[in-house]
Write a structure and sequence with these properties.
Elements (H helix, E strand, L loop, with lengths): L1 H14 L12 E3 L16 E3 L2 E3 L3 E3 L7 H17 L2 E3 L4 H5 L5 H4 L8 E7 H5 L4 H11 L3 E5 L2 H6 L10 H9 L4 E4 L7 H10 L3 E3 L8 H7 L15 H8 L6 E4 L5 H10 L3 E4 L1 H9 L1 H21 L5 H4 L4 E3 L1 H6 L1
Parallel strand pairs: 4-5, 4-11, 5-6, 6-7, 7-8, 8-9, 9-10, 10-11
Antiparallel strand pairs: 1-12, 2-3
Helix pairs in contact: 2-13, 2-14, 12-14, 13-14
The structure holds flavin mononucleotide.
Length: about 325
């Protein structure tokens, strides 16, 4: 059952260390500016992303749905997003497409005035027959402004019940991308330049890089007895490498995979991301209560502002121009 699997993912992500061995954001050092330009309190973190105004460049990224526990988590996330004016994505909506009784576990987010609500479906399903009907119902279910299509072929490869199919996928997505706002998304193994370029040509409106640095779905599946999970634990492209690599495509970019703090978020933006996507680092707060999640996200925003203050950036557009040094393992990739 998909519902059981989803709950198992949440449990493993809360109880086990499923991070990639190395967090490549540690290899990005923002250069200090001795005399800041504005008072810290005057710094603005506002941005416009996919036509929506956000008070900070933060997306609480796709994690869950399809279970009463997941409904509460999604509600906590939506409440905080409304309160703070940031973006959210729900987890894969496949379980509710297949069992409409589960729709409210996602639909709960539509009851909150969130500036940017993003739905989520898996790419392999589009090789197996999903089409306009499923896209339409995922969007309707949460009154979504856009839909993430997640490419999780690493996970599908190491998961006992994985869908390792791609035939017909691109033709199918090509017609859907003409009609709907689709975002291409990875889930922790990163987006390469040519795949992202292909999606841009199809008409996708953004890419969520979700690279190596944080949650490894090979690791998650290892704990679910996935046969090859351990071997492929660190497989993929480092998140900051993906951001740097995809910047020249000129598509809106979500920098994600391993973000832990507002400093990581500042690093992602300085490298070329428009928004930072946080998943597992917020899960335990979202599971506890909306108040705990609220104070954690407020802390992220404070940290982002400090990083902006100390790089001489008063606006996100100025943070994008910040100078940085790349060291350590990330340097090998460049
Ligand atoms: C518990 C959990 C469930 C997830 N479920 C989904 C999902 O349903 N769809 C999806 O696109 N990504 C899913 N992801 C992947 C995240 O959206 C994100 O791309 C990935 O975890 C990397 O970010 P992180 O290192 O901040 O966790 C999930 C992540 C976690 C931790």
């Amino acid at each position: 059952m998909i519902q059981d699997r989803k709950l198992e993912h949440i449990k493993i992500c809360l109880d086990k260390d499923v991070n990639a061995t190395h967090n490549y954001w540690d290899d990005v050092v923002l250069k200090h500016v001795t005399i800041p330009k504005k008072d810290l309190d005057e710094i603005s973190t506002e941005i416009e992303f996919l036509g929506k105004k956000l008070t900070a460049p933060i997306l609480i990224d796709a994690m869950t749905g399809g279970h009463p526990v997941a409904k509460k988590i999604n509600e906590n996330i939506a409440k905080v997003a409304e309160e703070l004016g940031i973006a959210i994505a729900v987890g894969s909506q496949r379980s509710a497409i297949e069992n409409s009784n589960l729709e409210d576990t996602y639909g709960i987010v539509a009851q909150y005035d969130v500036p940017l609500r993003i739905g989520n479906l898996g790419a392999p399903q589009f090789a197996l027959g999903y089409g306009e009907k499923e896209v339409h119902s995922a969007i309707e279910m949460i009154d979504a402004h856009a839909l993430e299509i997640h490419f999780n072929y690493l996970q599908e490869s190491v998961q006992p019940e994985g869908d390792r199919v791609v035939k017909g996928l691109i033709d199918n997505l090509s017609s859907l991308a003409k009609k709907y706002k689709l975002i291409g998304k990875e889930t922790g193994a990163g987006f390469d330049y040519n795949s992202a370029k292909l999606l841009k040509e199809l008409g996708f409106v953004a890419i969520d890089v979700s690279g190596v640095s944080g949650t490894s779905f090979a690791a998650v599946e290892y704990y679910r007895r996935g046969k090859h999970g351990k071997l492929f634990w660190d497989w993929g492209l480092p998140s900051p490498y993906c951001v740097l690599n995809l910047k020249s495509l000129g598509l809106p970019l979500i920098g994600s995979g391993g973000l832990r703090s507002g400093l990581d978020l500042a690093r992602a933006i300085a490298l070329g991301a428009d928004v930072g996507g946080f998943a597992r680092s917020l899960l335990k707060y979202a599971t506890k209560s909306w108040q705990e999640l609220l104070s954690k996200v407020q802390e992220l925003i404070e940290e982002l502002k400090i990083a902006m203050f100390l790089t001489g950036a008063s606006y996100i557009s100025e943070l994008k121009q910040a100078s940085y040094v790349i060291k350590g393992e990330l340097r090998f990739w460049l």
